[in-house]
Amino acid sequence: MRGPHNILRLIRTAATFERTGALGVVLNAMDAPTPIRVLTRVVGWPLRWLGLKGDPEMPPVTRALSALGPAYIKFGQVLSTRPDLVGDSLALQLRVLQDKLPPFPRDVAMETVASELGQPADEIFSEFSEAVAAASIAQVHKAYLISNGEEVAVKVLRPGIERAFRKDIDAFYFAAWVIETLSPSSRRLKPQIVIEHFDHVVAGELDLRSEASASSEFAENTANDELFQVPLADWEFSGKRVMTLGWADGLPLGDNVALDAAGHNRTVLGSRVLQLFLSHALRDGYFHADMHQGNLKVAANGNIIAYDFGIMGRIDEYTRRVYAEILIGFIRRDYKRVAEVHFEAGYVPNDQDVDEFAQALRAVGEPIFGMDASQMSMGRLFHYLFEVTERFGMETRTELILLQRTMVVVEGVARSLDPHINIWEVAKPVVEEYIKTNLGPRAILRDLVKTARVLARFGPELPKLAEAALMQQTSAKVTPPRAPRLRPVLYIMLGAAVTAGGFALSLLLAS
Question: What's the CA gap between 190 and 209, in Å, rounded?
């Protein structure tokens, strides 16, 4: 990790950031400690001529990352989801990073298809176009299957991209090690963990089977969503370096002129894209975490089509319930209940004062609800909420940062379609329906069924577990002679009762 090539890459990176003017922006945004500022300036300034120029029309940070290549572009995109690390201003700049690169030749793509799928591309596809889109990791071709004539999109990884990324990621690990070594105070930003997270994200994007799996799961979850469409993966013609999806054509969701000309109702589209995102996050706990206009189109029949499933977000069921209660509490302006939910979930330590916390939450909610409908924002609400909860001792949770970041992007898409959209009025029915389904009597019965089934499945094992625990306990202290034999009998009886009761309750509630 600490070889000469990593040192050279670090020097080139510092020189490029210095040459493009990005270095000062990044250091200030991250409130970098003095040792890091000194090191980067010492390395960057004398050798700035070694740095890449980049596009002078771009802002400094995006200019530097774009000049340094695909891994740096992707790293910037991942960091844009972590305003808790890089600050809001820099995160906002990073969100506009585009990874459009010149395409590689069609013949090379067809060779990759043949190598990955085990047969020549022209034996699978009757037509195989030039690249219709090219990004940092892969490019997309339009094709037709010989077997059934279906129109498909074929995504192919760039040649040698895995090796290129591996080199840059090794350099990122080296940079993180240097930062932590020179400035122990920087460890609060967890540089190594940030790089590990990036490494994990990229590993998924460099294996197109992961993206195909994500699209497949997302399509199953949303199969019954009205006017929403996810291209289906064709597993027969997909592999690690090639992915085949059904072709889905439409107008870009960001092209208002084209949408108006086609007769689409942008007010309806704006509401629908926000409600779809909330439904996926709350109902399914699995959401598209990169829902910008470039990944959304509108079909001729009005369907919203989602593309590019490289970045997806997950929230477990318990956290979804907690945040639904928090969200509905804010919608109803019941700040005491929002505070209580935080304490009940263990998000805020018990040594804090619940009334003081509720007062702080009121300071978060009231200014937002006093805004004009066109300014009200759930993304802003959660941003302020994270600031307050951090002050009261709540640890940052990465999945919720990703949710908040995606919410900001989706709100931006909705407002670009309808500048006067009332975010809260649109969100309210989705949140209330989720709460009615997951926090009411039906949810209690459903949870009882799940519990009963688990108990029924593990009931026969309970006596063994109880006896083992009891024997371990009694071996450590002197007990009455009959106790070790009598208590296991009681646990056996309890296990049998639980098993029988679990089966009975499961059958009763299931019927």
Answer: 30
Which amino acids are annotated catalytic? 290
* Spatial CA neighbour of 394 closest among 368, 360, 365: 360
Q: What are residue 246's phi and psi, to 5 degrees?
A: -60, 140
- The span from the CA of 126 to the CA of 232, in Å, is 20
Amino acid occupying residue 331: I
- What are residue 145's DSSP bridge partners? 125
**Which residue has 């760039």 as its token pair?**
158
The three-state secondary structure class of 333 is coil
118's CB contacts (< 8 A; 6+ apart) are: none
Q: Which residue has the higher pLDDT, 286 or 469?
A: 286
pLDDT of residue 510: 44
- Residue 302, classified by CB atoms within 10 Å of its CB into exposed (0-12), middle (13-18) or buried (19+), is middle
Query: What strands lie across the sheet with 151-157, from one edge to the other?
Result: 125-134, 138-145, 151-157, 242-246
Give per-residue pLDDT as tens, 379-400. 677 777 777 877 887 766 666 7
- The amino acid at residue 89 is S
Give the pairing of strands 251-252 and 296-298: antiparallel
Neighbouring C-beta atoms of residue 356, cutoff 10 Å: 11
- 420: pLDDT strictly greater than 70: yes
Q: pTM to 2 decimals?
A: 0.73
Q: What is the pLDDT of residues 480-489, one digit of tens each?
A: 544 444 455 4
d(CA 67, CA 73): 9
- Angstrom distance (rounded) from CA 122 to CA 211: 24
How is the chain split into domains, by residue range?
A: 4-99+162-204, 105-158+207-248, 249-439, 442-510
The amino acid at residue 421 is I
316 and 240 Cβ atoms separated by less than 8 Å: no
**Alpha helices, DSSP H, located in 49-87:** 60-68, 70-79, 83-86
What Å distances lie between residue 492 and 57, 424, 452, 453, 464, CA to CA?
Answer: 75, 54, 18, 19, 8
Amino acid (one-letter) located at 153: A
Query: Residue 146 and residue 493: Cα distance in Å, rounded?
Result: 65
CATH 3.30.200.20 is right for the domain spanning 105-158+207-248: yes
**Integer Cα distance of 285 and 288 in angstroms:** 10
**Cβ neighbourhood burial of 363 (10 Å; 0-12, 13-18, 19+):** exposed
Q: What letter does residue 137 receive in the DSSP assignment?
A: S
Residue 251 per-residue DSSP state: E
Beta strands in 135-178 (DSSP E): 138-145, 151-157
- DSSP assignment of 190-249 equals -HHHHHHHHHHHHHHHTSHHHHHHHHHHHHHHTTT-TTEE-PPB-GGG--SSEEEEE---
